[in-house]
Design brief:
Blueprint lengths: L3 E2 L15 E5 L15 H6 L1 H7 L3 E4 L27 H13 L3 E6 L9 H9 L11 E2 L22 E3 L5 E3 L14 H16 L4 E4 L43 H12 L2 E2 L3 E4 L6 H7 L11 H5 L4 H18 L4 E3 L8 H4 L8 H6 L9 H17 L3 E5 L20 H5 L38 H4 L1 H4 L6 H15 L6 E2 L7 E6 L3 E6 L5 E2 L5 E4 L8 E2 L3 E6 L1
Parallel strand pairs: 1-9, 2-3, 2-12, 3-4, 4-8, 8-10, 11-12
Antiparallel strand pairs: 5-7, 6-7, 13-14, 14-15, 15-19, 16-18, 17-19
Helix pairs in contact: 5-6, 7-9, 12-16
């Protein structure tokens, strides 16, 4: 086997990712170098010093490929190029080179389930007609009904409505997401070969790893006749108990793992091997662990942790189960509190249990109201808890500033296709994608020379990097201190729970050297003995740990 090498990656350790801190960059909202209101690759490069100073190990770059932005860049017209509005391949190469110079790894988003309807393959398929080789790359079917006027099945799109769209010649194509995102047929060898080429294309350019979008949906049961879902839930996270594991028509099918075993042979051709992490919305930790096996992607996002409320017993159970399933798969656990698809945790963790987040967003964040200061305190405690856990932590741009959700975006500025495709019923994800504030003044608070593609609230000035840099007690400085200390403290991939912790408190030790204690209750509790290494907020009084507070303790 020929092992491919690339110039001076920031570390030759093949297991660097197992306990890494990875910073997600949503490029259109990170930094705008050319002043057109849209973030770009050169903007990322110019701000890499921020990530190096923060102390993260890697950046994960959300889609930057050519796209009409029907779904925030996840509608990809060319998987091996850069959207000209965001830059060029030369700009990308310069970013990777600078990242590696600063000691940062680079992970890119890979979108294999679908393409854009503007992709050359799909345009060819529309022109080629039924039964053509070009259509075999996608999922085209004849409709039902006397004249084929009904969709082939009752499958529903994630964004609302039928998952089928009819074309002028009468056939229908499958789109599990927006109509502008036709699904590929991963039973087609040409599709598989093309993505092997894509993996090599970016790996040859020095990319260190891949985040795999919708990893659970590539394999589909397309045997005829296609089967309706009927009462079976359409969404992956609701499948548990509805069908036997691995048998849903298009989610989390057992056959999907053949694809990732094939990918692993490509990723292992490089030195060090390229890492990968699955976005897999599956019904259990045991199913998630399958994607994280060493001969597949190696890691998978732990959405159970993200979806767990601010409750000590529930979090302990999720952490315990997540570590066990990761260990069984030979993987390391992953932890995430925010990303580009969910309400930012500084706001979300303050919502009462059972709150419908979409209803809250539609209210502009007023029903129920969220105490911004209390939300920030809880978010800081949650962050220190997450960073103390064994495994990899994924942080989302802006959370190091303590940014809340921008829940009151006017409906006329919304960009997320969810808003229109659900008949303006679901507000969507724009509130967590508002461009970052870098300075306390300027038309877009330093995001760029002009305005921003989504409006920033006036309150963003107080959260800006400029406002927090060097200020003792700021959230930015807390993240910097935590990540610096974390590097020194890391040991092993396990923890031991303290069984004598008071109700509402999580207390665990990592190795022999340090412990993490989080008070999730509403009242102060006794602080265990030990040297205080770091606390999420100043300790209220000697010997007491206040509510919504995390502390790291030494011996």
């Amino acid at each position: 086997m020929t092992v491919r090498t690339t110039p001076d990656l920031s570390s030759r350790d093949p297991n660097w990712w197992r306990q890494a801190v990875v910073y997600q960059v949503y490029p259109r909202s990170f930094a705008d170098a050319d002043g057109d209101g849209l973030g770009d690759i050169r903007g990322v490069t110019q701000r890499l010093g921020h990530l190096a100073a923060l102390g993260v190990d890697a950046l994960w770059l959300s889609p930057f490929y050519p796209s009409e932005l029907a779904d925030g860049g996840y509608d990809v017209a060319d998987h091996r190029d850069v959207d000209p509005r965001l830059g060029t391949l030369d700009d990308f190469d310069a970013m990777v080179e600078e990242a590696h110079r600063l000691g940062l790894k680079v992970i890119v988003d890979l979108v294999p389930n679908h393409t854009s309807h503007q992709h050359p393959w799909f345009r060819e398929a529309l022109g080629a007609g039924p039964g053509s080789r070009a259509r075999a790359r996608y999922v085209f079917r004849d409709g039902r009904g006397e004249h084929g006027e009904l969709p082939p099945t009752d499958w529903q799109s994630v964004f609302g409505g039928s998952a089928w769209r009819r074309v002028p010649d009468g056939q229908w194509y499958l789109h599990l997401f927006a109509p502008e995102q036709p699904d590929l047929d991963w039973g087609d060898e040409e599709v598989r070969a093309d993505f092997r080429t894509t993996l090599r294309f970016w790996s040859d350019r020095g990319v260190d790893g891949f985040r795999v979008d919708v990893a659970h949906a590539l394999a589909k049961d397309l045997s005829e006749p296609l089967r309706d879902l009927g009462d079976v839930p359409a969404t992956a996270e609701d499948v548990l108990g509805a069908v036997p594991p691995g048998t849903h028509p298009f989610y989390d099918r057992d056959e999907v793992h053949e694809i990732y075993r094939d990918w692993r042979t490509v990723l292992d051709d490089y030195s060090p091997p390229r890492m990968a992490v699955a976005e897999a919305w599956v019904p259990s930790g045991a199913r998630r662990a399958l994607y994280a096996r060493p001969d597949e992607l190696g890691q998978a996002f732990n959405f159970e942790y993200l979806q767990t409320g601010w409750d000590a017993a529930e979090l302990r159970q999720v952490v315990t189960e997540s570590l066990a399933t990761a260990h069984a798969a030979g993987a390391s656990a992953t932890w995430v509190l925010s990303n580009h698809d969910v309400v930012r945790h500084a706001s979300r963790l303050m919502l009462p249990p059972g709150t419908d987040e979409n209803t809250w967003l539609l209210s502009g964040g007023h029903a129920p109201p969220v105490d911004e200061a209390a939300g920030l305190r809880r978010a800081r405690a949650a962050t220190l808890l997450m960073l103390a856990l064994p495994g990899s932590s994924y942080v989302y741009q802006g959370e190091e500033l303590g940014l809340p959700e921008v829940a009151d975006l006017p409906v006329e500025v919304l960009q997320d296709p969810v808003w229109e495709q659900t008949g303006r019923v679901r507000k969507g994800r724009d509130g967590c994608r508002v461009p970052l504030p870098w300075t306390t003044t300027g038309p877009s608070y330093g995001f760029g020379a002009g305005g921003a593609w989504l409006p920033q609230p006036a309150g963003f000035a107080a959260y800006a990097v400029e406002a927090q840099d060097g200020r003792e007690g700021s959230t930015l400085e807390l993240y910097r201190a935590a990540l610096k200390l974390r590097r020194k403290l890391l040991v092993g991939e396990s923890l031991t729970w303290a069984e004598d912790a008071p109700a509402g408190v999580l207390h665990f030790s990592r190795g022999e050297g340090w412990r993490c204690v989080t008070n999730l209750s509403s009242a102060p509790v006794p602080l265990p003995a030990g040297e205080v290494l770091l606390s999420s907020v100043p300790l209220e009084e000697e010997g007491r740990l206040g509510p919504d507070t995390t502390v790291w303790l030494g011996a």
